[in-house]
Amino acid sequence: MTVRMPDDTAFLIVDVQTDFCPGGALAVADGDAVVPLVNRLAPAFGTVILTQDWHPPGHASFASSHPGAAPLSMAQMDYGPQVLWPDHCVQGTPGAAFHPDLETDRARLVIRKGTNPALDSYSAFFENDHVTPTGLAGALSELGIRHVVMAGLATDFCVRWSAVDGRKVGLAVTLVEDACRAIDLDGSLEAARREMHAAGVVRTDTAALLAGS
């Protein structure tokens, strides 16, 4: 029998979208391997929340919006340094859709982020200026959530920022490591692990979580 998580614990599934999986515009290696694990974990939670990158065409974080800029190069924005990505998760396109095998019916909320054409948003809680909220923290407070368990894509970007920001807004945060995959851009995975550890993010795996340990 599947373990049942406490009512004050939510499952946050980060950006399990077609463009982040093999064959997508910004594919994370082995990204689709998280899908069966996420589907296995979700029934243990009373509150399941999905995040979804949802960029307008011509978003400022796209390399194509900066003439001469190469994908995965860096740019300085008003809000700080920004990786310039290949066009991905454009609103209403197949690449922005959730992975077709991801079971989404349990989701209570879908948080769409990156919708401001001038401002990227890795975190589920704040846009990349670290000030503008997505509304997730308020929603979790209203629902009585004090602990968030996270999985999804990618460990070193959207999952990392969401986990650290979850701690900043006062939540306990647990990362299910085997239900995540990373881009690992110039050492970003190890940097993410260090930052999450320093923030007090707890690391576990699917088997341990479902065993209640």
UniProtKB/TrEMBL annotation:
Question: What Enzyme Commission number(s) does the record list for this chain?
Answer: 3.5.1.19
* InterPro entries attached to this UniProt entry: Isochorismatase-like_dom, Isochorismatase-like_sf, Isochorismatase_Nicotinamidase
> Which superkingdom, per the lineage?
Bacteria
GO terms for MF: metal ion binding; nicotinamidase activity
For the Isochorismatase-like domain, which residue ranges apply? 9-207
Nucleotidyltransferase among keywords: no
Which pathway or pathways does this protein act in?
Cofactor biosynthesis; nicotinate biosynthesis; nicotinate from nicotinamide: step 1/1
| Any single GO BP term | pyridine nucleotide biosynthetic process
Keyword vocabulary terms for this entry: Hydrolase, Metal-binding, Pyridine nucleotide biosynthesis
User: Which SUPFAM superfamilies does this one have?
Assistant: Isochorismatase-like hydrolases
- Top EC group: hydrolase
Q: Which Gene3D superfamilies match?
A: Isochorismatase-like
Q: Name one Pfam family in it.
A: Isochorismatase
The UniProt similarity line reads: Belongs to the isochorismatase family.
The molecule here is called Nicotinamidase
Source organism of this protein record: Roseospira navarrensis
